[in-house]
Amino acid sequence: MKFVDEARTKVQAGSGGRGSASFRREKFVPFGGPDGGDGGKGGDVYLRAKSGINTLADFRIERTYKAGHGEPGGSNDCTGHGGADVYVPVPIGTVVRDADTEEVLGDLTRDGQELLVARGGKGGWGNQRFKSSTNRTPRQFGPGLPGEKRSLAFELKVIADVGLLGLPNAGKSTLIRAVSAARPKVADYPFTTLYPNLGVVDVGQHRSFVMADIPGLIEGAAEGAGLGIRFLKHLQRTRVLLHLVDIAPPDPEADPVRDARAIVAELKKFSQELAAKPRWLVINKADLLPRAEAEKKARAIVRALRHRGPHFLISGATGEGTAELCQAVMGFLEESERSARAEATAGVAASGSEQVS
Fold first, then answer.
1. Among residues 144, 113, 138, which one has the least CA distance to residue 47?
2. I want to staple 127 with a disulfide (CB 3.0 to 4.6 A). Which of 36, 164, 242, 306 is the partner?
3. pLDDT tens digit string along 53-87?
4. CATH number of the domain that 191 lies in?
């Protein structure tokens, strides 16, 4: 199925049913009075995050999702049946906006999470609601309120712990194939990935993380060149970026240091928040050079880039160095989780002490 990460659709909640104008008719009760019931409430429209859906392709043709209308009220104070709710499945990681106002309505990040996007109209009152000491035989009733209508814009941001960043042909797809069960296309000729791929990296019992491979960036991407800038949003949820650098590019005039700086510049143009994420340098394709020469060139690249974070020399094709890289990433993610839990616990404790004082 084609990968689609942006879509639009329309939703329409059900209208409320009209109230009933009815009067009690019973033998030996000549003045039974009004007994018209209220109309039923219109159905709501919900979005529900569902695992197993990885694209918004189902919404590529504009569609309208409609909930059921409420039924009219009946005699004997019977309320009409409410309209059926509609649950629209969307991929986990979908950001929902009102297409007209650009207001963010919600961000569905957990399996089964639901978001109400259109509320059904209330049912109209029956005539028994209008009775009073001066109006003992009311004949008026409520017509029921219309349900909400909305145009929605969906934006899918894949949920991954680790994001791969780099030029086309830096070896991102080869790396994700080497460390996970994901199988993106790789070949011995230059081409770029056309859509994001996700892979689960297993580094031990009950220890794993999700890695995302996005189309490669090129210089000028922030101005619209290439595919990568369109998919950079898929890295915004990640906790660490792995910046892959080709140690032996096929073009003899290519400079790994210059190319790496160009990628960082494009990253900053797209989002300062994304550029501030932890970024590790991963020098790939070490198998193309003798070991000593590869290590010497890797050290030169790190010095030239003045990179102060972790750096690794690997070969995605042979698997050399990938196990150490994955173990280091897993340790970083686990330490980040522990720090986040400690901060949350400290915040709760501080809040409790303030309330006591």
1. 113
2. 36
3. 878 888 877 688 999 999 999 988 899 999 999 99
4. 3.40.50.300
